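Tokens for E3 ubiquitin-protein ligase TRIM45. Go.
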Amino acid sequence: MSESKKPLLGFVHKLPSGTAPGNSGKTRCPLCMGLFKAPRLLPCLHTVCTTCLEQLEPFSVVDMRGGDSDTSSEGSIFQELKPRNQQSQIGILCPVCDAQVDLPIGGVKALTLDHLAMNDVMLENLHGEGQGLVCDLCNDREVEKRCQTCKSNLCQFCCQAHRRQKKTSYHTMVDLKDLKGYSRVGKPILCPIHPAEELRLFCEFCDRPVCRDCVVGEHREHPYDFTSNVIHKHGDSVRELLRGTQPRVEALEEALAQIKRVNSALQKRVEAVAADVQKFSEGYIKAIEEHRNKMLKQLEDIRVQKENSLQLQKAQLEQLLADMRTGVEFTEHLLASGSDLEILITKGVVVERLRKLNKVEYNTHPGVNDHISFSPQEKAGQCHGYEVYGAINTKEVDPAKCVLQGEDLHRAREKQTASFTVLCKDATGESMGRGGDNVHVAVLPKDKKDSPVRTMVQDNKDGTYCVSYTPKEPGLYTVWVCIKKQHVQGSPFTVTVRRKRRPHLGVFHCCTFCSSGGQKNARCACGGTMPGGYLGCGHGHKGHPGRPHWSCCGKLTEKSECTYIGGQSTSTSLLRTVAL
């Protein structure tokens, strides 16, 4: 019987948008969405119409397995195994799950027919839930009867012809409506090698169904039996495998359920965090805007204050200039045009006025400057609980008012880091209170001015700057500290670098008796002794300095340089000093 090939309308290679796998049921193709026509079972256990599979775009794959493939097909089960070598093979993708399907040599039509799906389609048509069945012989008219002997669906015309033929005249014919209670009405499964024979036997060696002609031909030496006799054994093995698979299905379903729950929790958490971010951002933006408005208002107030100061100074200078011009013009006119007597008469008034004008103090420089700067990195406190940055600064550092501080200002040790602090102030002597000024420091040896010492300047962001350097050799050094290319107060200055401090060899103790635990032979550089044969000092005894001191050299300052020199004898008996 020839297979009817009708073109698919609106064919696509993928499932239609919004169609989930399995929604088409057991009788409809997931591609064309129509009832199955010659359905083929793919290795991934999805079923698709033969015509739909033929319209998929194939691709070339390389098969390293030789002729032994996972692809199950009726046409390939009787082919001999090929040698294991590399060969090119044609494949397609399953339109449901995108699994790769290696096509057998016969192509799509060599794939396994899904007889179970064909039976379901037949049952659906019998119950009037699908389209009308078409006659198996003419493939044209609708089915009215079914031959129970050859399992064929026939139209009225073909049914009459079926009865007239001698070979089929004895076949039993039933009306189609009488089959609605049946669970299986499928056609007999015929052998692909011998189409006239049904597959009733099973070859144990080849593990596949065969027909009567097969067992006397290609399978004549293979053990075989009727399918009804071997179905229990093979069915049990499939059931056993199914029992081992079902827990995995449940585990995967539980895993997917957990993923769904976590994803749901994730979405809720993301929404909550997004709300927090939105709330924080809105509050921060509001705080920044309010801080901006404050700074702009502050800037406007500074402008008004400076302008008022300039206007006042301008008015005062203009008035003073007008008074002076009046005095100068009147005096010049008096001296040029007045008589001797007139000059003498008005001299007193003129002299007093000019003297008074000359005594008036005034500033020739503007009382305010245009120094206004914005420091975006400067902390400006909090606004509505948010830390805000940026400040308007009107102070300007005055190098002449800046001072230098620190214990290491004029002294240092070789190969030891020395440091001091630069305190920046404005013209009024007030601390700048902020950083950002360009402080330049140079440390130069007096005898090697072309070899400056490397210096580090750390901005403390509060108007102070920590300067550190490490001289490599002892001697005199000159230190320059400049701001805005001007020396600060006290710069330049000289630093005396002495040799590296000698560490103490003994202990800083109150007395030898206490630090040694009462040892008689323990000595101290202070020269003190105790009665009873003790060679070291003790509280209240002869020679004790009365305060803590170093046992090696007798110095009373804990942070000091050791002066002990081995080999010399002094009044403090340094030779008897013991390092404890």
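Helices lie at 50-54, 115-126, 156-164, 212-215, 227-337, 340-359, 512-516.
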